[in-house]
Amino acid sequence: MIEMQDAAYGYAGKPILAEMTLRLAPGSFHFLTGPSGSGKTTFLKLCYGELLATGGSVQLFGQNAQDLDRDAIAQLRRRIGVVHQDCEFLDHLPLIDNIALPLTVTGRDGPAQTANLTELIAWVGLSARAQARPPEVSGGERQRAALARAIIMDPEVILADEPTGNVDWEMSLRLLQLLCELNRMGKTIVIATHDLALIRAAKPQVQARVLRIAEGRLQAAGANL
Amino acid sequence: MNLSLDLLALLRGEVQADRIVPRTGHTARLTAAVSGAMAFLAVFALALSLAAGRLAERWETALAQSATIRVSAPAGEIDAQTQAILTILAQTPGVAAARALSDDEQRALLEPWFGPDLPLADLPVPRLIEIIETPEGLDALGLRQRLAAETPGAMFDDHTRWRRPLVAAADRLRLLGWLSLALILGSTAAMITLAAQAALASNQQVLRVLRLVGARDSYIARAFVRRFTRRALTGAAVGTALGALAIAFLPRAADDGAFLSGLGFQGAGWLWPLGIPPLAAVTAFWATRIAAMRRLGGLR
């Protein structure tokens, strides 16, 4: 699904990540931890093709990321749902349209998809806030909307970058629960977080691996919860 | 193929896709206003070109097949020389018709300079013979040599000397008109490119989000291209209509074909301005598409 072999990434001659060797198996659940600035976001960006490895190789669904053209990258992002740290919304559109954005840009905004959309919005608990614009909603609602947008295309992999970074503990648990439910549906999940309490809270719900990035390298890879 | 799909989507419109790009009143007004103003100027440049073209053609064709012989001789010999010249002309290949101008016609020609009461009989005014050539034309050199030999007072003038610079001037004017059109088109492209770049820069976050959710470059570009193309088309349509109205209300061409009063469109020439709005739209389409693709190239 997503496989790295000695992958490295550097910017302006400065190495950020190195010797990243990893395979994300279908249906697996991973936490990615590490201190702020350790390269967690960079790692996720390598996973959905926003950045290209400067060394080694990154295989995305069997294709070398280096060989993908811009259209292929766009195609790939329909198979990988991403919950961004700062959510990345279009502020002039209501939440419902932001959530439906992946359907809109792929021309799949027919009646069947609209029904699924309504169901999905109810699942993340945003039915009452669907017509609100992103600046008008709370951090937790934004995160749930971001999660809904990430999964609306029924992706095989979901990458979440600090999804609980701006929400209270109760909302963090709610989001975690949603991600665990998705994993039980067969989705591969990677959550980048520095919140160890969140990782501990996941223990009763899911079988997860914890990966740690420190000094630009993956450490303790394979440690199970 | 992709371009055809883009153009089809452009005409069809996509309500949902159009909402993705926030409305930008400033660039919208700028694009429409620039297109309108440029279309207005383009109508005049077009009218100038077409009028200059008609003028050049008229001078070229009307004067190319006519010539004049001026007969200067003592009063007692002028009729005999005129008759001799007419005889020569009757034998000359390429001459369709030849006739001596009557006194009234000569008086009419001189009236603008000497007034209506010119005593033509008392003045040593040369006799003028008008020649109409066949489409094949006559051998001017041969005729000149024969006239010099047989009627020394005759001076053959095929109008080439003064016709050539006039036609050249009209041709140059026509060229300037087309050049103005090209400059107007180029300026329109530049202004729309600037407006599109401003809109793209202010919507950098929109571009980024769309890429992240899996939108292809062509889809994103189309959202901007459609908007700018429609604005340009609308603005140019209004500008063209106003320009055409202004041309229509110019004073009508006088019989003597004065150039300024002849500025305008005639007959099917009125169809020419209809090409301006689509041309503005195509220009906006490409200017925005190129600007959008360049901007998107900076995003992965």
Report what the structure shows.
The complex is a heterodimer of chains A (225) and B (300). In chain A, 33% of the residues lie in helices and 28% in strands. With 225 residues, chain A is an alpha/beta fold. Chain A has a six-stranded mixed beta sheet with strand order 6-7-8-3-9-10, with helices on both faces. In chain A, strands 2-1-4-5 form a four-stranded antiparallel beta sheet, covered by helices on one side. In chain A, strand 9 and strand 10 form a beta hairpin. The relative contact order of chain B is 0.19. The chains are: A alpha/beta (225), B alpha+beta (300).
Element layout with pairings:
The complex is a heterodimer of chains A (225) and B (300).
Chain A: E1 2-11, E2 14-24, E3 29-33, H1 40-47, E4 55-60, E5 63-64, H2 70-76, E6 80-83, H3 95-99, H4 101-105, H5 111-123, H6 139-151, E7 157-161, H7 169-184, E8 188-192, H8 196-202, E9 209-214, E10 217-224
Parallel strand pairs in A: 3-8, 3-9, 6-7, 7-8
Antiparallel strand pairs in A: 1-2, 1-4, 4-5, 9-10
Chain B: H1 2-12, H2 15-20, H3 25-64, E1 66-71, H4 78-91, E2 95-100, H5 103-114, E3 127-133, H6 140-150, E4 154-157, H7 160-202, H8 204-212, H9 217-248, H10 276-297
Antiparallel strand pairs in B: 1-3, 1-4, 2-3
Helix pairs in contact in B: 1-9, 3-7, 3-9, 4-6, 7-10, 9-10
